[in-house]
Structure formats: structure tokens, C-alpha cells
Amino acid sequence: MRLFGRDDRLFGRESECATLDSLIAGARSRHSAALVLRGEPGVGKTALLRYAESQVPEALTIRGVESESGFPYAGLHRLLIPLLPERDRLPPSQRAALEVACGLTEGPSADLFLVSLASLTLLATAPRLCVVDDVQWLDNESARALAFVARRLHAEGVVLLFGLRGDDPGLFAGIPDLIVSGLTRDASIALLSDVVTDDIDLSLAEHIAETTGGNPLALTDLGRELTADQWRGASPLPEPVPIGSRLESHYSARVRGYPPPTRTWLLLAAAGAGSRGEHLLAAARLLGTRPEDAGPAEGDRLVTGSPPVDFRHPLVRSAVYGDAPPAQRRAVHAALAAATIDPAEADRRAWHLASAAAAPDEQVAAELERRAGRAGARGGYAARVTFLNRAAELTPDPAIRAGRQVDAAAAAMTAGAPARALSLLDVVEEAQLAGPVLGSALLTRALATVNTGAPTGLRDAAGLCLEAAAAFGADHVQARRATVQAVDHAIGAERLGSVEETRVAAEAARLAGTDPDGLDGLLLAGYSAFILGGYRTGAPAMRRAVAAVLDPAVPDETLLRRFVVAVNFSNLLWDDASRLVLLDRAESAARRTGALYALDLVHFVSAMTDAALGRLDQADRHDATGQRIRRSIGQTADQEQVWRHPELVAWRAPDGFRDSAAQALQVFEMLHLGAMHSVTVLATAILEIASRDYPAAHDLLLRIVDLGHPRRYAYALPDLVEAALRAGDRPAAARALDDLAVAARSSATPLALGVLARSDALLAAPERAEPFYREAIDLLGATASFGDLARARLLYGEWLRRRRRRRDARDQLTTALEMFEAIQAGAFVERARSELAALGESVRSPVPSQGETALTPQEAAVARLARAGATNGEIAAHLFLSASTVDYHLRKVFRKLGVASRRQLREVFQD
């Protein structure tokens, strides 16, 4: 296999070739793999990829093209062209998204992750090799989709190879990589000996090998550039020797020596990379050049093909384009724009018009803005940013330019690029911002700052949103949207925000009246009533808001924007039933629409909810699913730390939890994550209660509960009643019970009344306590709060033991122990076991379950869906896997559980 041309070989790459051979061999056994080949320009990545292609007939191969990097899904479309006839086999939602992304049909904006899953499904239809070179020039949507596919490959028999310049992980973080470095000294000298036909001075060859760092492209070029006298050492070498970043200037010097017609043809090919051949030829006629003029460059093997033109290396193209005078570049783009007349090529034509503009031009800017809208409709959010930003640069009117810059920033936020959104906003002239444009800028800045993880992001977000609401003025729809966003941020920041929640609530109350029956109006009314009036006025308003969000007529997109606020209201109301329905509907909506970021948030909130309810097995499932999703979308290990669940971990009472919780509290305080800070305090307090360190729990809970004013952490009041009473602070316990009575009776849900009855029992006189315990168990038994029910039985059993009713105490404590063991709630298990031991009972050691716990989280998820009757294709769509990977996991499930069919699976596999 040749390295760069017919005279060059794969010198010194035995190890890399062996790695590729191993991956390809594994694919023949249905094992999939992905690998990113990284290295500097010219180091040999492309040679290795071509070697891999030579080992697999019918490999799918594309190269990134810089001029196409602004066109959404252009690279992915080229890769999948041979497979598109198979798209009828895709689930309808995946097929529709893929067809829109590839420009095969019109439709709603293509969701990135539905397109990604469709690509995975198509690529898994048959074992194959897929090679994507020059990834740095792929459009953002194609790169993200292919990175998603690479992370989901498992048992399809597909090998996906990427060639990427540089070492920045970027979108490909978490995917295995192979660093392609320079050749060794001996291999470098061998390559020079193969390229140079003259005698070579050995010391000179060693010097060049060292100064080039063994870069094969630099070695090959120098082998043909230097004279025979220089190779013999009779003439001096140019200094510095052109290597690495200097390759471009090396090519520029060579191109400058060509005749003008050759340079014009090369510039046309560089500017029109990715264009259709007839368009290049038409533009060439306008410029007075022709393919035959490429002769000198073809003789030097810098280009091949006329047309399409293939540059030997991306740096050749960069050198040609970058070295041309600006006026000549504009002339070439103008010719390309004139030649590109097909309606299907309107995006490319608009970009050429923009590149041909020497000064601001509103007509061209408006066309770019229209193209941005089309890109967004295809799901090309990154391309929309590029078009809008260029449109802004060409806009003569300052006010219109500011509007387009703000639109570009909002598009960047939609594209998942908050840092870029902020950089675009930073260049906007503040004097031009007013009214709705200012409102949009403030909303985008709030979201972008929070999503970049800036320490002050969440602290200031609610305030920015309120400023946005004021800027929208009489546009009440946008003002309400901004204020609901302020509510969302205020809930997250709590006391650590720069704006008091009462101020947010006052604005919410004002705007709620502009649409009292609409969804956003009801949400604003519920929040303001609760913050300003407490439970008595807030509970009815929050119930109406939750009911509105649960209305089946609410569109998926709206549900996914509003479910977090509605879940928060359900928490405040102890409304476990509505909370679980909301999350179930949100999960279905996120899966149906392919909204993977929203799905990740759903699982995060679901894990918190189930942990609060003591449904730890379900919380584990949601946590594991969220982790898989975050790996799929390329989140780093540092980002992952913010998504940990202290309220879930605390139930398990692992060693070192208190230390890690203390560290987490510092991080949350630094980032102004008030809600996570309070949740961590509450989780630690519950662990202290389970461990019988009541004074510690008492002190922790008083940090988040304001006695006499039951508000956001009223659901921590039952814990404070128990901790304060057992710590000897009966007055605090009594005040907590009074507050709890107000909140619980206003909420009037079985869960609220159940924890109230449990708390009443703790403070009741001995002769009056038992009816309260029985009432608590009856009420809590009708709810989803497994943990509160188990704790009620534990407290009742402890009370019975102190009353010397041994048999009754044993029944309650044994049941509580079994419940705590079922969810592996370590500290509560030990407390229940010690109570039984005090009765003189011989307590058995817990027996580990042999069902789901024998499976990995991925296998358990597959088994659960298979047991429910889902097909492999349906499971694949649900879990964002390929059908081949589902089949692989299902076979392992059958083997581990000792079953041979789905019917048997339903009999032995239980949640």
C-alpha cells in the first residue's frame, strides 16, 4: 500500500496497521469499534485510513470539505448515499428526520439525535467499514451525529474510523483514539532513501529526520524539493526547514511559481470544493481558465482530477486560497455564484455571494438570513449560526445588524454551543439593543451563561430573564416566556440567586393576569401565589398549573420546556401521583421527538424524584440511563460530577459520604446551585436520622427550614419533627409539626396527610399515638412513597418495642427491615436490625436478589422492555442502540437468567 503516491510506502507503521487489522478482524465476528486517528498535518493519518480501506471491499469513505462545513448534514449525507435506499426499514420518526436532514423532503426541523439514531440503524444493516477523513472540516451536525454513532456501536460488526487533525478531543471525547506521530529516525531515513534518487549524505538525512519530527509529508516534499547538491551536502539547506505549520508556506511558494492561468484554476478549485463539476466548468469559462491549466500542479502531484479536483492535502488547498489576493478570491466566488443557479444549490450560491462581497450589502445579507432559516428547518442549527453571523457582518444598518447578531447567538444556544452564543453577544453594539431584540439577547445570555457552567451563571440568570421580560414590553407572550424562565432559574438558585424569589414572584403575578387561563399564565400564578402567600393560597393555584401541564393536548415541545416547574410544584404538594405521570409523559415526549438533552434532564429529575420517594431501584435505573445518555452526547467526567445524586447515595450510607457531601456543598455554593445545595443538606440529614445522630440532623435541617413560615422545604418538616424530638428540642419539633399541618392540609394529598399522621404520632401522648401510626401506614400504603412507608413502619415498630409489645413490634420491624433491604438502604437496614436485636430476635443476613441485580444496567433495561413485549427494533429506538446490540444484550440476559424465550423472561425477571 502506497503512502502518499505511487512512489511512497507505509514506512514504520506496522503497529498502527496491526491495530487496524485487529479492528477489522473483530468486525467479521460482529464486534464493532470506533477509533479516532489524531495527528498533525502530513503525519500519515490518511495513509493509514487508505490502508484500512484496502482491506475491506465496499468500504464507505468520505472526507471533510471545508467549504461544506456550513451546510448541515452535508458530510453525513455523502456517507449514507449508498444506504439511503434502505431507509424504508427505519422507524417512521427516524426516517422522517433523516430525509429532512439529507434534503430529500421538507418537514419539521430534523432532530440531531433522531438523525443520529437513523444513521446508526442504517450502518448496522450489514458489517462494513466506514472511514471519515479530515473530520475537522465536517459540518457540525454530521460530526455530532457520527460521534453519537461511534459511542453507540457495540455488536453490529461495524468499524468507524476518523482522521482528525490535532489533539483537541472536542466532540469526539470518550471515543478511543490512536495518536499518529512522526516516524522513527530509521523509518524517516528509509522513506527519504525511497523518495530521493540521488545519493544522500547520512548525517544530512539524520538532520532532516530530526528537524521534520519524522513527518512523512514533510519528508516526501523535501525529498523532491532539495537539489542533488543539497542532498550530497555540497549546498546548504534552506533554514528553517519547512515542517509542520510551515508546510502551508512551503506549498504557497510552490504555487506562486505557476503561470497565472494555473493559479486561477487552482483558486477556483479551492473556493469551489464540493461544488458540482458543471458549476466549476461554467465558472472557469467566466474566469478565462480551463482544466488543462492545472497541468503544472498535476505534474507536481498537488492536485488530481479535472473536475472534481482532489487536493493532495488540505494544506495545499489552504495555501492556494490563503495566498490569493482578496480581490481575486472575490472574483472567483462571484463566478461561482453566477454559475450556481440550481434551486437545490441556493445555500451554496448565497455563501459564494457573501464571499464575493467587498462591502456591506443588504441584499446579500437578506439572502443569507433566508438561507439561515432553511438551514434551521433542516435541523442545521450550527449552519444557521454561520449564515446569520455572516449576514450580520454584511448588514449596513446597525440596528438590523444587531438583530441578526442576537438571532445568531440564539441559534448557537439551540445548537448546543453556549460559549459561541456568548462570544456572538459580546460583539453586539449595546446601543443598538432595545425592545424585543434586547429581550432575546438577555434571555440567550442567561441560558448560555448557565450552560457554560460559569460560577455566576445561575446566580444572575433570573435577574437577566426579568430584564428580558421588561424589554419585551407589550409582547406578553414573550414576556411570560421570559418570566417562566426566570422562575425556572430562581428555583435552581434558591437563596443563592442575586434576585429574591419574592421579586420574581411579583413579576410572575403581574404577567399571570395577562393570560389567566393559558399554560404559562397558570404556571406564573401558581409560583407567585406560593412564594407570596404560602401554602393556603399557593396550593390550589399550583394544582391548577400541574393539571394544565398534564393536559394531553399540550404539545411535546411545550411539555419538555415546562415539566421541571410542574414537577417542582408536585414536590411542594407531596403529589407523588402527578409527579410520576409528568415524568413518564416527559420521557415519552423526549423519546418520541429524539430530544436527547431533554431526555437526560428527565432521567435526572426522575432519579431525584424516585430517591425522594425511597424507590431506590427505580432511581438507580434512571441514574444509569442518564449516565449512558451523557456519555453518548460527549459530556466530560468533570461535567458529569454536577449530575451526581446525593439524595440517592445517602440512603446507601457508603463510607466517606459525609466528606464527599461536604465537598459537594462547597462546589454547589460556588456555582450558586442553591437547590442542589439544599438537597445535599437534606440527604445528609436523612442519613444522620437513619444513623441515630439526631443532633446533627437537627442542626442540618434548621439550615433549610424556616420555622413559622412553611415554604419550599416543607417536605423536610417530617424529618425535622423526628430529629428535633429525638435530639431533645421538643419546642422545635412542635413548631415544625404546626408548620407541617398547615402545608399538608393545604396540599391534602395522601402522601402529605400520611407524613403528617406519622409526625403526629411522634409527638402524641403515649395513649394517643397508635391511631396516628396506623393512619400513617394506611395513607402511605396508597402512595408511591416506598421510603416514607418503610420509615413509618420502623417508627411504629420502635414505639411498640418501647411499649413492650414484642410480637407487634417484631411484625412491624421485620416488615420495615425487608423493605429497606429491598432497596439497599444501608443505614436504615442497620437501624431496623438493631431494633430487632434489642427484641432478642436472631436477624438473618440479607439474601442478595438473583434477578435484575445479576444484570448490568444496560442488560436490565433491555430485559425490562423485552419482558413488556417490545421488539428488538422498538427496544433499539427506546435505548438509542442498534437492533444488533439489543440482540447481543438479550442473548446475554437469557444466558444469565437461564431462560430460552421472552415468555420465560416474563416469568423470572421482576422489577
From TrEMBL:
GO MF terms, alphabetically ordered: DNA binding
- List membrane-spanning regions: none
Q: Which UniProt keywords apply?
A: DNA-binding, Transcription, Transcription regulation
Q: What's this protein's name?
A: Regulatory LuxR family protein
Task: Pinpoint the HTH luxR-type domain residues.
Answer: 848-911
Q: Name one GO biological process term.
A: regulation of DNA-templated transcription
Q: Which domain of life is it from?
A: Bacteria
Q: Which PROSITE patterns match?
A: HTH_LUXR_2 (PS50043)
Pfam families attached here?
A: AAA_16 (PF13191), GerE (PF00196)
To which species is this protein native? Actinoplanes lutulentus
Q: CDD domains of this UniProt entry?
A: LuxR_C_like
